């Protein structure tokens, strides 16, 4: 701001003012000190005055200051300004003035007196700044700072020289410094040389106009080693030139440690699962050989092929054979589950006529029981399609579900097998019984390996392994299908297998349907 000084004798005070005000960034207007009806006359206006008001010096010099007053100009403020300057003092305040091409603007006014070389020569000078723009800028900066402080990551506004223009409170916490100590400093001064050299290629890329996303471990000067996720976003002007960049940095050290621990645990789990699967596979094969011998010899004894046995020995032979057969089922189930868990179970897929596979499963189920079991009714549609599946797996699913139905259904009960079309062209196989059923709290338990409903051993006619339903579920899911279990304690159970539409193939005209019968 110009200060009120008495010009040296013989100098032209206005020439001095003109020279100085030409370099002044703010608008400057100089008037006579007269206070006529229309106010003092304007004797000088600098280039910044034209920028602010639209009036060039040639438009206003020699004209009264009332030219600048608008409809909203406060007459009271004008009176205070005149009173202050008439008394030789200063004035600071705000005024609304009119612009040359219409409209008004609010300006901050700093006014003072200028004395000429003659004692009776006095001028008034006023420096004007756009108060509305200044308030908007302050408000905008304040809102930006508030938003930045609310962001839970490090946020910085950098210029093209990689100096901080704005930082949020996260920076203050990380680098143990106030924002006043950070703003204006170069990037390497704040984050440290080591971290800066790691980021330097990425900073050069963003200053070339390319957004950058990166994750890496950096060693900061005061924050120590941190694994960070950083985004660098270029700032551009109206011409497309890069004026700086925004930096958003998130500390993901804890996440990376958790990922590492999870990966290690997964590797350990996979190693343990692999070891378990290999052990079960090896032991299953090792156990099958003696079991086959036990079953073969006990069956020979049971059938009396080399002579009749005493009644007690006959009973023992039947028990030996039954126990060995049960153990073989358990081993086969364990082996199949181990292969599925290890992703080593291979499906030998083909187009299958379901009816003969289902009848074979019914015959095998009945043959394994020496006592009468509930009748099994089979209801198949006339246009039963073919199923693209693994024959052995399909038979195993039917066997397990039928065995469970027979096991938990008394002889005077009923077992039914139905096949029909499901949603979206799928195929459903439904096996239901009127047996003991399963309590609601046990529905999830029976779907887990070795999981059995509480008291099931007392309700069934024989002991189970707890592998039947889990194995069926795994096998049908390998085919892209699903298993649904619906049961009510004391009323029976229904298990529904659903095979997806892409496995359901229409039967060719030259391939007649196998006629299934109830047994």
Describe the protein in words.
It contains 15 helices and 18 strands. A hairpin with a 3-residue loop joins strand 8 and strand 9. The strands form 4 sheets. The chain has a 5-stranded antiparallel β-sheet with strand order 2-1-5-4-3, sandwiched between helices. By secondary structure, the chain is an alpha+beta fold. Helix 12 crosses helix 13 (391-407). It is elongated. 23% of the residues are buried. Helices cover 41% and strands 24% of the residues. Residues 1-11 and 455-461 have low confidence and may be disordered.
Number of distinct beta strands: 18
What structural class do you assign from the helix and strand content? Answer: alpha+beta
Number of helices: 15
Q: How is the main sheet built?
A: 5 strands, antiparallel
- Percentage of residues in helical conformation: 40-55%
Overview features:
five-stranded antiparallel beta sheet; single chain; 41% helix; 15 helices; 519 residues; alpha+beta; elongated
Short description:
This protein is 41% helix and 24% strand.
Secondary structure elements and pairings:
Layout: H1 13-22, E1 27-32, E2 42-45, H2 47-53, H3 57-60, H4 75-86, E3 91-98, E4 104-115, E5 122-130, H5 131-150, E6 154-159, E7 164-167, H6 169-175, H7 179-182, H8 187-191, H9 193-207, E8 212-220, E9 224-236, E10 242-251, H10 253-303, H11 311-341, E11 349-352, H12 354-367, E12 376-379, E13 386-390, H13 391-407, E14 415-421, E15 427-433, H14 456-459, H15 468-478, E16 482-488, E17 492-499, E18 504-505
Parallel strand pairs: 12-14
Antiparallel strand pairs: 1-2, 1-5, 3-4, 4-5, 6-7, 6-10, 8-9, 9-10, 11-13, 13-18, 14-15, 15-17, 16-17
